[in-house]
Amino acid sequence: MNVTLTLLDTGFCRQLEAISLGGGRFQSIRFHAVAGCMHHPDHGLLLFDTGYAPHFFTAAARFPYSLYAKATPVFTERSQCVKEQLASKGIGPEQVTGIFISHFHADHIAGLHDFPGARLYCFRSAYEEVKGLKGIAAVRRGFLPELMPEDFEERAIFIDDGPKIRLSGEYHPFEEAYDPFADKSLLAVDLSGHAKGQFGLFLRDTQDRDIFLCADAAWSSEAYRKHRPPHPVAHLIKADAASYLRNLRRLHELHRSWPELYILPTHCPEVHELSKGEFAWS
Ligand SMILES: [Zn+2]
């Protein structure tokens, strides 16, 4: 079953290029946070992450959470948050039935409060990692607790509690996935490393484009295309450097054996361009 996919730019933070790309410059570049908006024939409107939203600034206002905003200065306008972008198309937040949360870093969940009726799809392993975290321990994991809805657990659907299915050869080296809607429309694969329990979503859209939303398993398309892992400094802020490198290698292999597949990392400059072009609202 095919879904439509629109990419929405929700603003950016500044970070050194050298941190995200091996051999990159020691120069501050923009890291856009691009969210996905999908329409599924049976499940309606769904999001893949929410990117930034004004809630980020309230959640990061007080120490020690302010350290997060200092480390990666964030630039976003109210009109850029997913809720406002949907509103500009005449879509109310209640029409969003579900949000796939790739992982719990603040640049992916800042808009959760805007969709109080949505089911929240994530990996249990990712949620357990941040559940109840506060203060410095939270900041160290890129997590701002105020961004979490109070009724999170009542609305949560833990993807990794479900059964796995075997993937066909074209997905190699990925061999198994979760199938949350049991219709093969969205296939979730574990991409732990950048964060524990981070996942990516395979889908085929209504224009027959094969797409892999890979969140932060790579920070740029250059990184998986040429297999350029980030500067070792970046490993300090990764949950599990060995898993990260293993999954980046997998993305590289996947790209080589399936070049037509759109592999879309959240913060890649090319993905930001796609949000204004091929994957803009049609
Ligand atoms: Zn991110």
TrEMBL record:
Q: Which reaction does it catalyse?
A: 3',5'-cyclic CMP + H2O = CMP + H(+); 3',5'-cyclic UMP + H2O = UMP + H(+)
- Gene3D superfamilies for the chain: Ribonuclease Z/Hydroxyacylglutathione hydrolase-like (3.60.15.10)
Does the entry feature the keyword Nuclease, yes or no? Answer: no
Ranges for domain Metallo-beta-lactamase: 32-267
Q: Name one Pfam family in it.
A: Lactamase_B
Which keywords annotate this record? Hydrolase, Metal-binding, Zinc
The terms under GO molecular function for this entry are: hydrolase activity; metal ion binding
Highest taxon above the source species: Bacteria
Q: Which SUPFAM superfamilies would you find in this protein's record?
A: Metallo-hydrolase/oxidoreductase
Q: State the needed cofactors, names only.
A: Zn(2+)
Q: Which InterPro entries match?
A: MBL_superfamily_lactonases (IPR051013), Metallo-B-lactamas (IPR001279), RibonucZ/Hydroxyglut_hydro (IPR036866)
Identify the SMART domains for this entry: Lactamase_B
Q: Which family does it belong to?
A: Belongs to the metallo-beta-lactamase superfamily.
- What does this gene product do? Counteracts the endogenous Pycsar antiviral defense system. Phosphodiesterase that enables metal-dependent hydrolysis of host cyclic nucleotide Pycsar defense signals such as cCMP and cUMP.
What is this protein called in UniProt? Answer: Metallo-beta-lactamase domain-containing protein
